[in-house]
Design a protein that fits this description.
Length: 342
Amino acid sequence: MRVLGIESSCDETAVAIVDDGRRRLADLVLSQLTEHRPFGGVVPEIAARSHLGQLDRLIARALAQAGMKPHELDAIAATAGPGLIGGVLVGVTMGKAMALALDRPFLAINHLEGHALSARLDPGVAFPYLLLLVSGGHCQLLRVEGVGRYRRLGTTVDDAAGEAFDKGAKILGLGYPGGPAIEQAAARAKAAGIDPDAYGLPRPMLGRPGCDFSFSGLKTALRQRAQERAADGALPERDGLALALQESIAAVLADRTAHALEAAAAATPRLTALVAAGGVAANQRIRQALERVARAHDLPLVAPPSRLCTDNAAMIAWAGIERLEAGLTDSAHGDGLDFAAR
Ligand code: KG4
Ligand code: ZN
């Protein structure tokens, strides 16, 4: 079975063709970074127009890369939300049109389900597992029990972890996207021997019962510290503040995940792994913190390769394959995941 996936819910136009043997026959991602960078964040109108301008050519390139003709596809899957509605409409309309013309099933895939199942595409974990989904728009802990069976144990009450990185980077003047910029600045601070605790940034929710997250207080504290330090004429310390921010986020993610593992450990069957997915899971310091938590529970930490952690279409095509194999074709509804915009 070979499924074409389309992802257009944010600022990546992506097309992939994946088969049921977990092979990525084509896996293309076009980033719109340079188009949004002057605005310091994603502009929905620009994103939608850019998807519209690129998607048809990207599909043609994916088919050429896979050495396939359109009629050799078994189904078309597209992200149907949550996301920026203009971009989602472009991908869904294109996917439906192809499915109609080729007389193949169309699968409306929840973007979060794509992230949730990406670790089954590579490296191929078995159900059930605990998933920490940390991206620009979401921060959730889910017990993934099967295709379409997701039990949410915790979520953010305000910002997502990726948002904390992005807004933090904006406050510190480190540019967009924030995550990689903060990680690099933090690495410089670490190499310079800066102590992150010296900045006294809070670690919201740490040690509290339950598995929810909160990051907005951290952002406010960072802004205050940055202003104080700027008033002192000492903003070259921004690398130190980036390190402090990253340490706080890593500590909070690890603490909340540990709580979720304790809550999920009692349920049967036993978890096979702790899986970290979403753009923030690309952060090496966060992986290290989660590794420690997983080890304490005698579980492996599984993180899909970075390319599958950030937005991509292979995970959407793969979710389509999993849905087809499970006999579930109406995918973008329910499932216990939350749907912000569709
Ligand atoms: O999963 P993703 O590509 O898109 C969403 O669905 O949101 O995640 C993007 C987010 C952004 O907030 C970005 O700053 C963050 O992931 N991110 C990182 C890193 N790489 C990307 N955060 C921390 N460290 C990184 N290395
Ligand atoms: Zn995403």
